[in-house]
């Protein structure tokens, strides 16, 4: 195969180092780099090292598409680790299908997708929104305000979350969307709407630089975060460090990984992460998922024996491994992962206090085909 001609396994890395989502995508890059370095230090895969070919799409959907085409066509790369937002994944998906490549996608997302050319390593909404909806209603109240960036992930996630809240007797008291990259006046106006609506909690799917502005302005507006917290699926440790922990304590994250998880695997991961990227580096669900998917790929490549996307794709199915977030499994029916749901509350140091977690890995349900909104409860998940 072309990807093996120089006595190495060449793979693509397509995450943004610049643009509106550069903080979270830089986390993806760090997790990817750490995993590859560890694999290479242990002898590589079948005696050959992984060699990344990396480009910066600058958080621009057109650039993701063009660079994926360059990787799969001109660079003759078969496997790409990349994309963070659903907008970037949707831009790349037809290119990956046309070239019969394989994309490893590490972000939590809105679901309602299946592609044999993708391994979905992030959480689905049944692994995040379901326990979060129950937690907000039980601990904060029934009046929820929805705010998001204006693209597919926020709109679909908010739709599902709104249905969950209403199915359990809650109420949506507002729903507003901001163009990607919005800051300043536009964000301040949304914060004013929230302040006037006085919800019990806010569900935010605002991402990137808009989210950074939103959390800062929410704090500056003097809204009581204990009484009216912002709950998110994305505002993890590295972004809190970027915004400033003083602006974010008390806010809520529903995710499958938190840096504070107490397990030998996570302690080793966090120590290696800080040794590689500095003592101030924060591991997050963004970096950890990117790290895990590289290890899943290396295991599948060893079983497949060649850089054949179809063979690697089949070798992934059903694989189980221990990771920093716990036991995971590649679901053979959906190509998503069995993951353990968790909820954390941001502390003054910018890390999360684990306040709830499921009893073990939960089957992904990207189409919400088997999930019953009315019956889900935190007690059933424990």
From TrEMBL:
Single GO MF annotation: amide binding
Pfam families reported for this sequence: Peripla_BP_5
Ranges in a coiled coil: none
InterPro entries assigned to the protein according to its UniProt record, in alphabetical order: AmiC_PBP1, Leu_Ile_Val-bd, Peripla_BP_I
Swiss-Prot/TrEMBL GO biological process terms: amino acid transport
CDD domains linked to this entry: PBP1_AmiC (cd06357)
UniProt-recorded name of the protein: Amino acid ABC substrate-binding protein
Species: Allgaiera indica
Lineage summary: Bacteria, Pseudomonadati, Pseudomonadota, Alphaproteobacteria, Rhodobacterales
């Amino acid at each position: 195969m072309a990807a093996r001609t120089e006595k190495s396994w060449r793979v693509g890395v397509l995450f943004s180092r610049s643009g509106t989502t550069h903080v979270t995508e830089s986390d993806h890059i760090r997790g990817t780099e750490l995993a590859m370095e560890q694999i290479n230090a242990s002898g590589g895969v079948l005696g050959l090292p992984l060699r990344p070919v990396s480009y910066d799409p600058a958080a621009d959907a057109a650039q993701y598409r063009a660079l994926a085409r360059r990787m799969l066509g001109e660079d003759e790369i078969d496997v790409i680790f990349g994309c963070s937002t659903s907008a970037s994944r949707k831009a790349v998906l037809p290119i990956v299908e046309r070239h019969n490549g394989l994309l490893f996608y590490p972000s939590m997302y809105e679901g309602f997708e299946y592609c044999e050319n993708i391994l979905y390593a992030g959480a689905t909404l049944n692994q995040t929104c379901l326990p979060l909806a129950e937690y907000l209603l039980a601990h904060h109240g029934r009046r929820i305000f929805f705010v998001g960036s204006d693209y597919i992930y926020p709109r679909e996630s908010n739709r599902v979350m709104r249905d969950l809240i209403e199915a359990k007797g809650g109420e949506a008291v507002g729903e507003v969307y901001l163009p990607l990259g919005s800051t300043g006046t536009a964000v301040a106006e949304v914060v004013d709407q929230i302040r006037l609506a006085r919800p019990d909690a806010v569900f935010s799917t605002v991402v990137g630089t808009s989210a950074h502005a939103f959390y800062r302005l929410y704090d500056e507006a003097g809204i009581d975060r204990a009484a009216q917290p912002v709950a998110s699926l994305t505002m993890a440790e590295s972004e809190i460090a970027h915004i400033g922990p003083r602006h974010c304590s008390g806010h809520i994250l529903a995710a499958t990984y938190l840096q504070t998880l107490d397990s030998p695997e996570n302690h080793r991961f966090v120590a290696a992460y800080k040794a590689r990227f500095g003592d101030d580096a924060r591991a997050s669900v963004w970096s950890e998922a990117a790290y895990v998917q590289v290890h899943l790929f290396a295991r599948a490549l060893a079983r497949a024996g060649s850089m054949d996307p179809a063979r690697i794709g089949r070798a992934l199915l059903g694989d189980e491994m221990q990771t920093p977030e716990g036991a995971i499994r590649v679901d053979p029916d959906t190509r998503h992962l069995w993951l353990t749901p968790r909820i954390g509350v941001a502390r003054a140091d910018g890390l999360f206090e684990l306040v709830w977690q499921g009893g073990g890995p939960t089957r992904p349900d990207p189409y919400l085909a088997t999930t019953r909104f009315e019956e889900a409860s935190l007690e059933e998940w424990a």
